[in-house]
Specification:
two-stranded antiparallel ribbon; 43% helix; 16% strand; single chain; alpha+beta
Amino acid sequence: MNVIVIGSGINGLVSAAELALKGHAVTVLERLDRPGGAVRTEALTLPGFRHDVAAMNLSMFAGSGFHKTHAATLATHGLEFVPVNRPFASVFPGGDYFGVSMDLQETLATIPDPDDQAAWKAGLEAFPGKAGALVSLLSARMTKGA
């Protein structure tokens, strides 16, 4: 079977790889001049600084069944994950920002409202108990509808 995959974002590339591994002829079409969709690195700000575009997608890929199955092969082709201490930030007009750090106190220092700080801490405490449902949902196999 010949398959055309529209888009070379992480989902398109994983789909194409899975289909190719099952023996299908696959063509991937991308409108941009580079693959990767939201999972790519670009120089977006100052010279010498490179940024992941939508890095949360990369985190989900790193924890995916596809990566678990194919990690060794991907590594031989150059895939590596670089851990960071400050993975996310949002900058607002006027220079304010919210920055997520691996250090809780550093993160809380970017949240001016004490109630919002408490909500952030409560969300962190609740996350481990709820993460299983999220992982199950994101890693569930798609099936044909009835």
